[in-house]
Write a structure and sequence with these properties.
- 2 copies of one chain form a homodimer.
- The first copy, chain A, is an alpha/beta fold and about 450 residues long.
- Chain A folds into 2 domains: about 170 residues, Carbamate kinase (3-Layer(aba) Sandwich); about 150 residues, 2-Layer Sandwich (VC0802-like).
- Chain A is about 35% helix and about 25% strand.
- Chain A has 14 helices and 18 strands.
- In chain A, the strands form 4 sheets. An 8-stranded mixed beta sheet of chain A has the order 3-6-2-1-9-11-12-10, sandwiched between helices. A 6-stranded antiparallel beta sheet of chain A has the order 14-15-13-16-18-17.
- The radius of gyration of chain A is 24 Å and the shape is globular.
- Chain A starts with 7 loop residues before the first strand and ends with a helix.
- Chains A and B meet through α1, α2, α3 and α4 of A and α1, α2, α3 and α4 of B.
Chain lengths: ~450, ~450
């Protein structure tokens, strides 16, 4: 895809990979080896270990309600630090390197503090440093927004002063930085180094025989990530999909092939469940005795959205006598805030009651073949029934079936479903698939 | 000096003043009180507590020889963090505030990593934020250098890319940031908050009756700082002198008047020793049997300067029989490096030997009146002789007399000289001086 002689690889290392001097040196050795293999390299790093949490704790010790602009400048320092240290470690090994902040790397954002989206990348400085023979280390999770300064109106001598502001991309934003740079630079591959070896059929800490997938499609990966598999950010996968970036998830601690996330041309032939995802960060809210009249959904979900509470599954039960029950799930950490918002509405909305349950969990089967095979739903529900696990809610998409169950049965459910769908068995893929994944 | 209605004050808080959340809140209360008094405020902060040393230790754990460019990005994060936290603390108290990095505050430098000098300040953003009613918190110790990118020559599409680079001003650089901002903004006063109450006639930990000076001239302050008084950076005092910035040194922990550093019009009338300074970070090197021929000084001091070793006092003794002894002092921490440089030269230079002494100290009397009163030198040397303290070297300037003595006698010397020059006695200043200092 590129006219330049060397292949270009973007490598991203997360916080646990750069936690402390020894791990930084190990990461540098890994980068140096890749460089010796003849690749041009752009390396994206997160903040070291718990740095981001420590900075948040420091801000929390000062104020309950930190200004998002100030918080972004504070948090961005974590990635500045790790980027410089990785660059120093490479230089100490004789590898030419330079660290760039997100703004120096030409990454601009839409300016929404704490949850900015990348608006564009001016790749010229990165390309110039690569052209000068350097490994370019980019501070992840951040970019610059440029906006006219509000106060300018009163300052006639300063009409060309603009406010270049640091913005951060939200949790996991370094994945997005890496994929966006890979897309903009036309990289041959984007490698995401993590503390797991790749994408598994289920959480290997629960299912002993969980199997690493050699390859997975973008859409399947997005569903898995959305449903609780915490290996990679949904946004980054989506960005890779839109820009056709081949992403590899692999271990920063072991030297082994990872999982490729790419356009999966074998989906139609495969017709199979690819993996399970589960999520314990779930609470269920039920509005009891909802009057059958228009506008109620807006009255309930509008304020939750305004408060930044992400509503996931919504199920409206069959009504009896003009009223019905409406259940939905939210992240468990938001339950207290949601109750404070909703309980004052009981009278206004004419509800009988609001009940909550914070001891539920979500479990999903994901596979691009599900849409063509109605038997999968029956097998999933039957397997859970055989285990004596009650299904509280169901939701489906074209490539996913999700159920809400009691949290204390989630590990039993993972193991039973893993066996029922024979996920421990290597897939019998058509010839050529193994080569594509290698 | 300014047309705006509110007085403008620049306040600078050092690392110990912002070490941790509680101290940051205390600093914020102090700033808020000053704001309530009706001043427009620009606040310069250093990195919290030991942050800079911790970052240096982290870099040292990665490499013995960190790239100065990377080190500057790393160190600058310390001031970014403290600036955002002070801003958050002010906002939590209802005081409108905004933090700016050195580059955002318009501070540009000459681009020398680790020891940059301020090249200019574009004050428009700071002025605009003040105009918007905000207290402006500026990250000290840093600025931006802008230079064309070297790699550009090979990159025809990127001919307008410039490299905006973070540079730091060296130890104590936040003092310089504060004074430079005060000069550029035409501030009414520049307050340097420290862990001492002001400038003293001698180190009060040694001389019990050391007295705080209400006012001191720029030149006297520079001599005191140069000779070991560690309250304020020499460069910042010099910058204040050139720009006529009134500087106040005062305690960040106590609410008491400090010492004003300003043009001292009373010097000619005062004619008095103002204070003592001493410095233990001294080593003496003696070149024994130096041949009496030209060029030797350059052969010795050239390589020391190239190695960044600051030579202080130089004394050449009277020669006997065509050769002489040459003694000079350097910072004690540089002694090992200096010996490695000089010892291979013994044969080439025709020296008899090189001897070193790292158990010496420097003690100085400083006062603008000294130049008109030759009796001060005699009184200083006589006082040391009465105490049985041997003088190893002597150096004088127009407003200072410095001696090198044995380090284990330095405290005796401070106390004896403090008494001999009656420094514990308040000065009988002409009317008006007390008001000027208040």
């Amino acid at each position: 895809m590129r006219a330049m002689p060397n292949p270009l690889v973007v490598m991203k290392f997360g916080g646990s990979s750069v936690a402390g001097a020894e791990r930084i040196k190990r990461v540098a050795r890994r980068i140096a080896r890749e460089r010796t293999n003849g690749s041009d390299l752009v390396v994206v790093v997160s903040a070291m270990g718990d740095t981001t949490d420590e900075l948040l704790a420091l801000a929390a010790a000062i104020t309950d309600d930190p200004d998002p602009r100030e918080l972004d400048v504070l948090l961005a320092t974590g990635e500045h630090q790790s980027a410089t240290l990785v660059s120093m470690a490479l230089q100490a090994m004789g590898v030419a390197a330079i660290s760039l902040t997100g703004p120096q790397a030409g990454i601009t954002t839409d300016g929404r503090y704490g949850k900015a989206r990348i608006a564009g990348i001016d790749p010229r400085r990165v390309r110039a440093e690569i052209g000068a023979g350097k490994v370019v280390i980019v501070a992840g999770f951040q970019g610059m927004s440029v906006a006219p300064l509000e106060a300018m109106d009163n300052s006639p001598t300063a009409s060309d002063v603009h406010a270049a502001e640091m913005t951060t991309l939200g949790r996991g934003g370094s994945d997005t930085t890496a994929v966006a740079l890979a897309a903009q630079l036309g990289a041959d591959r984007c490698q995401i180094f993590t503390d797991v070896k790749g994408i598994y059929t289920a959480d290997p800490r629960i299912a002993d025989d969980a199997r690493q997938l050699p390859v997975i499609g973008y859409e399947e990966m997005m569903e898995l990530a959305n449903q609780g598999a915490q290996v990679m950010q949904v946004r980054a996968v989506e960005l890779g999909w839109v820009n056709d970036v081949v992403i590899e998830v692999l271990s920063s601690f072991e030297d082994a092939p990872g999982t490729l996330i790419k356009e999966d041309l074998l989906v139609e032939q495969r017709n199979k469940v690819r993996g399970l995802a589960h999520d314990r960060n779930v609470a269920k809210i039920t509005l009891v005795g909802v009057p059958d009249k228009p506008g109620l959904a807006r009255s309930v979900f509008g304020p939750l959205a305004d408060a930044g509470i992400n509503v996931d599954m919504i199920v409206q039960n069959v009504g009896h006598g003009g009223s019905t029950d409406l259940s939905f799930t939210i992240p468990r950490v938001e339950l207290a805030k949601a109750k404070r918002l909703l309980e004052p509405m009981i009278r206004d909305l004419g509800l009988a009651d609001i009940t909550t349950d914070s001891s539920v969990a979500k479990i999903s089967i994901v596979g691009a073949g599900i849409q063509n095979a109605p038997g999968y739903a029956a097998r999933m529900f039957g397997t859970l029934a055989d285990e004596g696990i009650n299904i509280e809610m169901i939701s489906t998409s074209e490539i996913r079936i999700t159920t809400i169950i009691a949290e204390d049965r989630v590990e039993d459910a993972v193991r039973a479903l893993h066996a029922a769908f024979e996920l421990e068995q290597p897939e019998s893929e058509p010839a050529g698939a193994a080569a594509a994944a290698g």
